[in-house]
Amino acid sequence: MPNAQNYSAANAQDCRKEVEMSTKKLTILYSRLSRDDELQGPSNSIVNQQQLLQEYAERHGLVSYILISDDGWSGTRWNRPGWQELLAKVEADEVSCICIKDGSRLGRDYLRAGLYREMFRERGVRLIAVNDGYDSELGDDDFTPFREIISEWYARDTSRKIKSSLQSKGQSGKPISTKPPYGFRKDPDDRTTWLVDEEAAVVVRKIFKLTIEGVGLFQICRILHDDKVERPSYYMTKRGYVNYRGALDTKDPYTWSTHMIIFILSRPEYAGHTVNFRSVKPSYKSKRQVKVPEKDWLIFKHTHKPIVPQETWDLVQKLRLTKRRTDTWGEANPLTGLVFCADCGKHLYNHRGKGRDFYSCSGYTNGKTAFAENHCSTHHASTASIREILLDVIRRTSSYVREYEAEFVERVREMYLLRQGETTKGHTRQIAKNERRIAELDTLFQSLYEDKVMGVLIAERFAQMSGRYEQEQVELKAKNVQLQSELDAFNADNSKADKFISLVQKYTRFEELTPVIINEFVDRVIIHEGVWSEQSETERRKGTRSQEIEIYLKHIGKFAVPEMRSAEEIEAERIAEEKLEHTRRIKRESARRQREKKRAAEAAKSNKTAA
């Protein structure tokens, strides 16, 4: 490096001018380093850049300088904190000169870089790129635009290589996310493998458990806050798993958000799966993430140890689809979304308040409100009756499973094979029929094309007919895919009885019907219209009202528990029911006579008053 004593007199005079200029305003020595630049060698480091710029500034008399840097920031991003600080000083008219190592340190977008160069020129700010030999005070450099374009091409090429690498990695089943979700941590020996973080996994399991119990999102946040559970960003940053900026700068690290609860409940990773390509960037210049439709996600099953079982995860997803609003009683009804009408198939609405608690068909309620002529009937059923029947069915089925497990497995298998056989035959016949029609449409389309070529059919008519045939083909192929998927589901799931047995073994006894039991055991409840034992033209509802309620359990559907009572016990119950019905009939008759007597007395009193 030449010594300052060897400078010519002209250079010394220039230095004095620069010193005089720099005493009024600042010279900014700006350096930037991205992760990609680090791979090019140590010469690009922030320290080396600053040393180069300091030597240049002191050699040329720009001694009134400050250092500003952006370490770890890509040149395609312009929201860099150091760069924003530099711009603020320029706009405040505090800067006389900006020194950078080369044009790429300014940024790797030649349009934006050109705009900033023009802004500096208008504000009288001198720009120096040391290694490029560029100095705006010496006039325009014809090669500067080309260097900026090449710099941008470098960023584009690097982005393309990184994207290709991520595509290859993501399609191989390895997670491409740089940050594992809460509850996992990276394996120190293999950064592409996730290990369960047991301390956080306990919290994740608790969140799933509370959801199954019917606890709302905000209530879960409150419970975690009261239990002093650190929120994910704070917890993971504190332990060095990730580095979220500002995560530790908080007075209350226990504040959870409903958004984070939803995030945890919706992630298939907690069931042991890897999900790649959830989002994409529209351009290498943009850091904005665009969400990809769920159907386009790439999901790899069973790639790591799960935190919750697949059945638990599936159950929570089903519960999340049902809106459970807290009513005026301060609680959400656990039967919401499970009770259906046997006639119209619609949900039954729950009505509670002022001493009443019952369900009625939404087809009846909505149809009556809209003055529809053919609306459904009420299908009135009290909540207490439904819950009592549910608990009884679960108790009897569970007792039967515990005492006669082998027989239960055989009965479920027979039921399953019967339903599978019926479904398989119907689906197979329909698929074959659709395939024949698809082949016919191919033949028709070929015939149409030949007629068009021969001039028998005009182009407009050909387009109309071929479009109709193509649409029919698309619909038939889609239908076949659906039917085949249902067949595959039948063939793949042969362990329904085992799943129900495992579910029963989780409980020692069933004393009351809790939300957890409802959510884990009950698939749906079908309510039929009530039937009266006696009918008359003058009084339609008469006698005893009976109602059929069908209970479909998880995994096994509607299961009829074999009659375990003896013939004597059954006969004794029948006689007891007849006696009870006889007592009811006597009471109804007595009540009827009392009503008639009361009406006669009121009529006599009314006639006497009129006379």
Structure, described:
With 611 residues, the protein is an alpha/beta fold. The protein has four domains: 4-159, Resolvase, N-terminal catalytic domain (Rossmann fold, 3-Layer(aba) Sandwich); 172-321, Hect, E3 ligase catalytic domain fold (Alpha-Beta Complex); 380-564; 566-611. It has helices at residues 9-22, 35-38, 46-59, 81-91, 103-106, 110-122, 144-171, 198-212, 217-226, 232-238, 258-266, 310-321, 362-369, 383-403, 405-454, 459-492, 496-505, 515-521, 567-610, and strands at residues 26-33, 65-71, 95-100, 126-129, 134-135, 184-187, 190-196, 274-276, 279-280, 290-291, 298-300, 339-341, 348-353, 356-361, 381-382, 522-527, 531-534, 542-546, 549-553. α14 packs across α15 (405-454). It is elongated.
Brief summary of the model shown:
This protein is of the alpha/beta class.
Structural class: alpha/beta
Q: How do the strands of the widest beta sheet line up side by side?
A: 2-1-3-4-5
Rg over C-alpha atoms, rounded to the nearest angstrom = 39 Å
What is the total tally of β strands?
19
Which regions have little confidence, pLDDT < 50, spanning 5+ residues?
1-10, 15-23
Kindly report how far apart the N and C termini lie: 134 Å
Quickly count the helices. 19
Q: How can the largest sheet be summarized?
A: 5 strands, mixed
